[in-house]
Specification:
The complex is a heterodimer of chains A (696) and B (340).
Chain A: H1 4-12, E1 41-45, E2 48-53, H2 70-74, E3 80-82, E4 90-92, E5 100-104, E6 107-108, E7 113-114, E8 119-120, E9 127-133, E10 147-153, E11 162-167, E12 171-181, E13 185-194, H3 196-207, E14 215-232, E15 235-252, E16 256-274, E17 278-299, E18 302-324, E19 329-351, E20 354-355, E21 367-382, E22 386-401, E23 409-425, E24 428-439, E25 441-444, E26 455-458, E27 466-478, E28 482-499, E29 517-534, E30 538-552, E31 562-563, E32 570-582, E33 586-597, E34 601-602, E35 607-613, E36 616-622, E37 629-630, E38 634-646, E39 650-658, E40 666-672, E41 677-682, E42 687-695
Helix pairs in contact in A: 1-3
Chain B: H1 2-13, E1 17-21, E2 30-37, E3 41-48, E4 64-69, E5 72-76, E6 78-81, E7 84-88, E8 96-102, E9 109-114, E10 126-129, H2 137-145, E11 157-161, E12 168-178, E13 183-186, E14 189-192, E15 202-206, H3 212-217, E16 225-228, E17 231-234, E18 247-254, E19 259-260, E20 274-283, H4 284-300, H5 305-308, E21 323-334
Parallel strand pairs in B: 2-21, 19-20
Antiparallel strand pairs in B: 2-3, 3-7, 4-5, 4-8, 6-7, 8-9, 10-11, 11-18, 12-13, 12-17, 12-20, 14-16, 14-18, 15-16, 20-21
The chains are: A mainly beta (696), B mainly beta (340).
Chain lengths: 696, 340
């Protein structure tokens, strides 16, 4: 471990991050009547935490690698607890990480992180806007029980060209946007490639033989391209292609190896037609996701090559019609059908070079599923008095397992969502949401990193659809410079999954994931507070959550309730943005953010015992219940300073420090059998970052 | 594993840190192990949990342990020293048993379990048919596939009847005679053509043999997955829940090396030098305990302590105010043969 420390210093040096800026405004087709528009920012409608343009988050000091990131921003909002510090795992109102749906243009992304969860795999400069909601879900938000983060790609620019290039300590990137046929056909493309491998080789060569670090061959890149066609002013047709690859190969002396890889490919064909009061949208998408591990494994004394992989192929067809009944009310209906094949946790071995099971896996959990839904949604919005959204959705799910001893599984579920607000007196009002939702794809969570290596499995006769009902009610206050939201929520969750063996993700045991699943319930309740103070040069935001989240599993701890792993009692996030200088050709901004969170829970064994088996004994750790020890609290201060210079080209430079107080926040505990001591692993010390971009 | 994770962390985050913390989560918790059997003598073990670093904390010999049958006390366990207790009592199938243990300084420890029935023979739960090709074993196969099979099973077949009403699982093992130690040992692997076998402990290999006799007697098992030491077949589960007349017939083969004999249709206790198939019916409590412990042994125990820290469930325990297991099982020795 000591050999890691020199690496710490050395790797800090090339911290050059770039944040690509949005290239032009493009044509944004906005069909909402004026009265129905809501502001960009936080919580303008109940349950909707933000509907924001990308530029809103670009200057925030949130990420350890300097990249702007919508998930990191969402983690600063009330009701959201973060998992491992600096990573992409978030837990909303007591739910699991897999209960959140991250979508790109309405299609769910199964793997949405780069660098094992450190940053999102969708480049932020490809995003026009994002919606993050934790309640009062719209009709097209389906297959989730906690939150929806819907990323909208940029609209094509049919009139002008833009180019942007960037370099950082993690990625080099480029972006181009250009019309092919003016006002008719346009293309937008952006891509990033990680230079992590070069940095790692450099560090290895400097450290030389003194290092015990393994050989590593990383590769990480992404690409997003969008072709837009506008036959007339009322129609838009677009084809979006998104691909991301993360691949890490480790070689340990003398010849041990580990390969981890995730791949995503997404293709979306989308059409929209708009008349005066009606918008018709339809889309077809293909979604391919694969994560794979390959490693040496010893089986019955033989060293074998183990391959474990999870694959999802999904085709989604969607159509919706929105019609504005008046300037204040609208009706929307839609249908959605997903056809997917799952191959979660398939495994096969080969011994030496001889494949024992040629061309087939010895453990397969394949199944084909159909998830279809239809919804009807009514909106009424009178910002001066009251607003209402009511949505009813029916979902039908079928799972055709390919294994002989599993039955075909059907499930028909009604779902409801509603949200309302009422101005009581002047700037003060009340707001409320209610949701009853279901989820059919389940993530078996390993490490709380938000990475893409977790298994994703469909509902079946043994894993019933997860369901959640939640209620939120609160007050809001809004004036020219101040906004305040304060409310309480209560949430019940059914058929929650507890994946009891996160360690299995690094072994053949992952193929036997069905044996490590427990089904139970969850409960969460809490108070949420958000304050936003905004002036010309200064903006201060603060959010606080007081909550309690529990789990009850009949087969764990005799059915006694125990805390959810990320049941953080107190969560406080504050940020300050100050515009130091704002001139025609230069702009300077200072951003500071601070977070305090109660520690998450760890499972610490109370002792050991020798379990008696018919053929001998095995020494096993005993837990009175999972998550029986709360770790110390987490606190962190991040600082960033951004300079934008507009000359012939537009330059942007940001210098940031993540965890400026260098606090060693706890990630996990483990018992070191060598020293016979308990050890705490902390992930991120003080970490400067730097980013530069130029666009023209 | 620790090296991998720390390397990953170091590469991406440039500085993870491990620090020692002062934490002593050790608690003094009694551990109880009591599996009721189809015998006249029941045994019980009570001792303290070991500490996290593996230090023994010793047996408990001053406990007062009683057994209740459907709410009525049937006797008190007698201390034999070293944490071991015995009670002369033959448990009755289908009865509910409660164990109550008083240890000075602790809350009363309790647990409940149901004893399964006697199951061998008469089509109650499990039958073993010698020389399957004579009458019984090939009957189903002939009916399904005709009489011109190129290779016909001729070994011992086993049948599980869905009329067996107990929730739990059969655990089959090949018992190999070790002439050096002069005792039976569980064979390293076992395979079956039963599609309802739980695959939690497959080894990754498929059964194959160079022994022409095995190939001749058990052709249907060739190519089936090998299981590590045990074959688990659950009874009341999704398999039998909707079919009360179902009969599952199957064959077993493993790396059995002893001379497995069977005398005509008569069962006899295994003799020294003979190998046999051991069938344990574990009630639902004991079944979960065995399976969890085996999963732990197969997947976790060989890994380092850092990896173990991610294994947070532990194994199934049904002891209130303590740790351990109170379950029930029946054990029988079954024939297995290669002799025409």
């Amino acid at each position: 471990m000591k050999t890691i420390y020199p690496l710490i210093v050395l790797l800090l040096l090339p911290c050059a991050i770039i944040r690509a800026q949005p290239a032009g405004t493009g044509h944004i087709q906005d069909t909402l009547p004026p009265a129905i528009k809501y502001e960009r920012g936080f919580h303008q409608i109940p349950g909707n935490y933000f509907h924001t343009k990308t530029s809103f988050i670009l200057d925030k000091a949130l990420s350890p690698v300097g990249e702007s990131d919508f998930i990191k921003y969402a983690m600063t909002l009330p009701g959201v607890a973060s998992g491992a510090e600096g990573f992409s795992s978030m837990y909303v109102r007591g739910g699991n990480m897999g209960n959140n749906a991250v979508c790109l243009d309405g299609t769910q992304l199964f793997g949405y992180s780069h660098l094992l969860g450190l940053t999102m795999s969708v480049p932020v400069n490809a995003i026009e806007s994002a919606d993050f909601s934790v309640g009062g879900f719209d009709g097209d938000k389906m297959n989730l029980t906690a939150s929806s983060l819907d990323l909208r790609t940029k609209e094509n620019d049919f009139s002008s060209k833009h180019f942007n290039t960037s370099i950082s300590n993690m990625f080099v990137g480029a972006e181009i946007s250009a019309p092919i046929i003016k006002d008719k056909l346009s293309i937008f493309a952006t891509g990033r490639y990680s230079i992590l491998g070069l940095e790692y080789s450099l560090v290895k060569s400097i450290i030389g033989q003194a290092s015990s670090l393994p050989e590593m061959k990383p590769a990480s890149f992404d690409f997003l391209g969008k072709l837009g066609y506008r036959p007339n002013n009322k129609s838009d047709l677009s084809l979006t292609l998104f691909s991301t690859v993360d691949r890490y190969a480790f070689i340990f002396p003398p010849d041990s190896k580990l390969l981890m890889a995730t791949n995503t490919f997404l293709g979306i064909l989308k059409h929209s037609f708009t008349s005066n009061r009606t918008t018709v949208e339809s889309s077809a998408s293909f979604n391919w996701f694969l994560n794979r591990q390959q490693q040496d494994a010893v089986v019955l004394g033989h060293t074998n090559d183990l391959k474990l992989q999870t694959q999802i192929n999904e085709i989604t067809l969607k159509a919706s019609v929105s019609h504005y009944l008046s300037d204040r009310s609208s009706l929307k209906s839609g249908i959605n059908a997903k056809f997917a094949s799952f191959q979660p946790g398939s495994a096969k071995y080969s011994e030496s070079t001889i494949l024992i099971v040629p061309n087939q896996t010895f453990t397969t959990n394949n199944s084909s599923v159909i998830l279809s839904s239809a919804y009807l949604q009514y909106n009424y919005d009178n910002p001066d008095r009251y607003g209402l959204m009511a949505c009813i959705r029916g979902s039908y799910f079928i799972n055709y397992p390919e294994t002989d001893n599993e039955e075909i599984f059907h499930s028909l579920n009604p779902e409801f969502s509603t949200r309302l607000y009422l101005n009581i007196y002047g700037p003060v009002g009340i707001e409320a949401t209610y949701d009853y939702v279901s989820q059919y794809y389940h993530t078996l969570e390993g490490f709380p990193l938000g990475w893409s290596m977790d298994l994703i499995v469909p509902s079946s006769s043994s894993i019933l659809p997860e369901k959640a009902s939640q209620f939120y009610a609160g007050l809001f206050f809004k004036s020219e410079h101040h906004k305040l939201n304060a409310g309480a929520f209560h949430k019940n969750m059914k058929n929650l999954i507890f994946y009891s063996d996160a360690s299995a993700i690094f072994s053949a045991a992952a193929a036997g994931w069905k044996d490590n699943i427990e089904i139970g319930a969850g409960f969460s309740k809490g108070l949420e507070l958000y304050y936003d103070c905004s002036y010309d040069k200064l903006r201060v935001t603060s959010s606080y959550t007081l909550s309690k989240s529990e789990r009850v599993f009949p087969n764990i701890a005799n059915g006694v309730a125990f805390p959810a792993k990320f049941d953080r009692r107190h969560i406080l996030n504050s940020s300050l943005e100050y515009t130091v200088r704002d001139e025609k050709d230069s702009k300077h901004k200072l951003a500071v953010s601070f977070t305090y969170q109660s520690g998450n829970w760890e499972s610490v064994s109370s002792g050991k015992f020798q379990a008696t088996l018919p053929d001998g004994f095995v020494t096993i750790n005993y837990f009175n219940h999972p998550n029986n020890l709360r770790l110390p609290h987490t606190s962190r201060l991040d600082v960033g300073y951004n300079v934008t210079l507009t000359r012939k080209y537009r330059h942007s430079i940001t210098i940031g420090v993540f965890n400026a107080l260098n606090r060693q926040n706890p990630f996990l505990l483990f018992f070191d059998t060598g020293s016979l001591e308990w050890k705490q692993l902390s992930l991120i010390p003080i970490m400067p970052n730097f980013k530069y971009s130029v666009s023209f | 594993m620790r090296k991998i994770l720390i390397s990953l962390v170091a590469v991406f985050l440039t500085g993870s840190c491990v620090s020692t913390i002062n934490l002593n989560p050790d608690e003094v918790i009694p551990y109880v192990y009591c599996i009721l059997q189809n015998e006249d003598l029941q045994s019980l073990e009570i001792h303290y949990l070991m500490s996290a670093d593996g230090r023994e904390k010793g047996p408990i010999d001053n406990a007062s342990a009683k057994l209740y049958e459907d709410g009525c006390e049937v006797g008190a366990f007698k201390s034999e020293g070293n944490g071991e207790y015995t009670l002369e009592y033959a448990v009755i199938p289908m009865k509910n048993y409660r164990l109550s243990i008083d240890i000075p300084g602790f809350e009363t420890i309790t647990a409940e379990t149901i004893v399964p029935g006697i199951y061998l023979g008469n089509g109650e739960a499990l039958d073993a048919w010698p020389f399957a090709n004579s009458i019984n074993g090939t009957r189903l196969i002939d009916a399904e596939d005709g009489s011109n099979l190129p290779k016909m099973p001729r070994g011992t077949s086993y049948s599980i009847y869905s009329t067996y009403p107990y929730e739990g699982a059969f655990w089959f093992s090949g018992m190999d005679w070790n002439s050096g130690k002069r005792e039976w040992e569980v064979a390293e692997y076992i395979a079956s053509d039963n599609p309802e076998v739980d695959n939690f402990n497959i080894t990754g290999k498929l059964f194959d043999t160079s022994d022409p006799k095995v190939e001749e007697f058990y052709p249907t098992v060739i190519g089936c997955p090998e299981h590590s030491r045990y074959l688990r077949i659950p009874t009341i589960d999704t398999i039998y829940a909707n079919d009360t007349t179902r009969v599952t017939m199957f064959f077993l083969v493993g790396n059995f090396s002893g001379r497995y004999t069977f005398e005509s249709d008569n069962l006899h206790s295994p003799r020294n030098g003979e190998g046999y198939v051991r069938a344990i019916f574990a009630n639902k409590d004991y079944d979960r305990y065995i399976k969890d412990a085996l999963i732990y042994r197969l997947n976790i125990s060989a890994s380092d302590e850092f990896l173990k820290s991610f294994y947070t469930k532990g194994i199934y325990c049904n002891i209130l105010n303590g740790a351990g297991i109170f379950g029930a099982m029946n054990v029988v020795a079954l024939p297995w043969n290669l002799i025409v």
